[in-house]
Amino acid sequence: KSTRRATCSLLYCPIFIFFKIVHNDSKFDNHHISHKSSFRIEVWSHLSFSKDKNFSLILCNIPNSAVMDIITKYFPDLSARQKEQFQILGKLYPEWNEKINVISRKDIDNLYERHILHSLAIGKFMTPVAGTTILDMGTGGGFPGIPLAILWPHCRFHLIDRTGKKIKVASSIAAEAGLTNVTFQHGDIAECKEKFDYVVSRAVMQLDALIRLVRKNISRDSSNSFPNGLLCLKGGELKQETAVVRCPMIEVPLSDYFSEEFFKTKELIYVEL
Question: Which of 57, 59, 148, 158 shows the greatest Cβ crowding within 10 Å of its Cβ?
Fold first, then answer.
């Protein structure tokens, strides 16, 4: 009987919910909200179960759905599941970043453009066959590996980084996003003995040094249209860096794929290994 009464109280109790939208930098314009901004929606809920039992303060971060437009703009054929997973990233990264800094706190509002879409540039360059194996060397908080794992669920990814806290964030986010094609390793690239079709990386180090480190991890058996090798995302002046590379190489300005200002100084570099 007491359980029944408690259930009735829950069903019929008055619920007062208040929403307050606060811009991350504490500046809020009632007339204009940028679709690139990230917002915190604070929900206060007061549930009166009895005179002496109250539940209050439910706090949750909900990403503005409009920021997903920049992903679907360039990848219109995403499945409903993939869209859901990309939306989950927009919720999880700001939450984790408050605990462990994996993205510059000044840059977290640009998560979708400068981190997720930037990672997906590799998906504009090529589409690997089913079963392709990919190593993300120096993944940090999971870039470019996690966005690519969402884009290519038919491929297997292994993400490695020397910083344990960053691997903790990346593995937790992958698990919460429901990714089953990703494994993680806390350690140095020298400790990774496995072979892969491709190594991906995002501005980890000088290109020639990166090639020396990952060459041992490239499988000799190739099954994709591009021979096995390195796919690297870089920015800035790269002439001196690429001049010393003696392997077959392709450079692609990311402005070929994306129109946003951020990508005008960014490149994708493919090196056949």
Answer: 148
